[in-house]
Design brief:
The protein is of the alpha/beta class. The protein has a domain of about 160 residues: P-loop containing nucleotide triphosphate hydrolases (Rossmann fold, 3-Layer(aba) Sandwich). Helices cover about 35% and strands about 20% of the residues. A six-stranded mixed beta sheet has the order 5-6-7-3-8-9, with helices on both faces. Strands 2-1-4 form a three-stranded antiparallel beta sheet, covered by helices on one side. The longest helix is centred in the C-terminal third of the chain and has 14 residues. The protein is globular. Bound molecules: adenosine-5'-triphosphate. The site of adenosine-5'-triphosphate (ATP) has 14 residues, from β2 and α1. The site of adenosine-5'-triphosphate has 14 residues, from β2 and α1. InterPro entries: AAA+_ATPase (IPR003593), ABC_transporter-like_ATP-bd (IPR003439), ABC_transporter-like_CS (IPR017871), ABC_transporter_ATP-bind (IPR050166), P-loop_NTPase (IPR027417).
Length: about 260
């Protein structure tokens, strides 16, 4: 990772056990280059969300450290450098969808940008629901509002934990096509947890396949396909080859590399 790179992520010997003794992450080492999108894929419960929460500075590791551009991630998050969109969208219930998204800019001390707000709401398909409060949105709509909230600050680091999990298949494909250019053209470093191999290949420059808990890297797969990627890319031989490579790595027994 180049020196002085504000958005490169370094995980060093990262370990985290949860109360009750579950070791979710054990001595995890990885570097994520600035401006690249990496998909994390692995069996359910292997520690992907824990890893993302450690990288976001939302949890402290028991051992090891995370550095983003050489700095503590919690500090970077408070400065608005890092945006997260997790499975639980956690929108403020008393604000409308648009106000929830706009608040992110305020918290990051960025000036209001109504044009950008409207553009993002349109891209995530919520233009007709800007004034609607979260309780009156569907689960998928709340997730889409959370994605818009994560993108509205043009963050240097974007952490997405199954961001399209509650979104229907058709909308998912549309979002997978429309949203990545927003962060990829502005040099954002993105980490994306997904259970979908196709989504990983469509969105990412690199796929890390993780073992069952505690998560460790069993395969590090480059996705050298040009952006932007259209959904029909899924029919190409190159796409299928990478997808098959990731699938094979996922089915490796624990302990095998
Ligand atoms: N807050 C918590 N308190 C206690 N245990 C936790 C907590 N969060 C996660 N765990 C445990 O840590 C392990 C890893 O969970 P984590 O959510 O990181 O996995 P995951 O790979 O993201 O799973 P999934 O793909 O199902 O979302 C699991 O055994 C889970 O029960």
């Amino acid at each position: 990772m180049p020196d002085g790179d504000r958005a490169g992520i370094a995980c060093r010997a990262l370990s985290k056990s949860w109360p009750g003794g579950v070791q979710a992450v054990a001595v995890f080492d990885a570097d994520f280059d600035a401006g690249r999108t990496t998909a994390l894929i692995g069996p359910s419960g292997c520690g992907k969300s824990t890893l993302l929460r450690l990288i976001a500075g939302l949890e402290q590791p028991d051992d090891g450290q995370v550095r983003i551009g050489g700095l503590d991630p919690a500090r970077q998050r408070r400065q608005g450098t890092i945006s997260v969109a997790f499975q639980d969208p956690s929108l403020l219930p008393w604000l409308s969808a648009a106000q929830n998204v706009a608040l992110a800019r305020k918290l990051a001390r960025q000036p209001a940008d109504p044009g950008k707000l409207a553009h993002l709401l349109r891209l995530v398909g919520l233009e007709g629901f800007a004034a609607t409060r979260p309780a009156a949105l569907s689960g998928g709509m709340r997730q889409r509002a959370a994605i818009a909230r994560a993108l509205v600050t043009a963050p240097q680091v974007l952490l997405l934990d199954e961001p399209f999990g509650a979104v229907d298949e058709l909308t998912r494909r549309q979002l997978a096509q429309d949203l990545p250019p927003l962060w990829q053209t502005q040099g954002t470093t993105a980490l994306l947890v997904t259970h979908s191999l196709a989504e990983a290949v469509l969105l990412a420059d690199r796929i890390l396949v993780l073992s069952p808990r505690p998560a460790r890297i069993v395969a590090d797969i480059a996705v050298p396909l040009p952006h932007p990627r259209r959904p029909d890319l899924t029919d190409s031989p190159a796409f299928r080859r990478i997808e098959a490579q990731a699938r094979a790595a996922l089915s490796l027994p624990a302990g095998a590399t």
